[in-house]
Amino acid sequence: MEECLFCRIVRKEVPATIVYEDDAILAFKDINPVAPIHILFIPKKHISTFFAMEPGDEVLIGKLHQAAVQVAQELGLAEKGFRLVANCQRGGGQLIFHLHYHLIAGRPLLWPPG
Ligand code: 5GP
Ligand code: ZN
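Output (structure tokens, whole complex):
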């Protein structure tokens, strides 16, 4: 059994504010939001980084992406827009080594983010 924090959230051992769940994907509010809307989307399967993907996982990443777009639509972001971020490895800002997307919205988002 994975000791990873996000795997523990999947198993409901660690509480989280869940905003979307299906058989393969879980989404929950980030504990330290950087914007009024900051939701994390994870595959329930433990995949540490994009470099740890196994054959077939691209289907899972498609589902992950679709879940983020669906929730964005439900939150009324289709017109306003949003940012979808995946940090990869420490040099890319990744702190939790269970692959995830950040859905960030609800304030003006400039680019580059700094
Ligand atoms: P990373 O830097 O790995 O891309 O992002 C990890 C994210 O997980 C951070 O934005 C951080 O605030 C969030 N996070 C860390 N611990 C917890 C937790 O226990 N619960 C929730 N909901 N989010 C967490
Ligand atoms: Zn995990």
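The pocket of zinc ion (ligand 2) is lined by residues 2, 4, 6-7, 46, 98 (CB under 6 Å).
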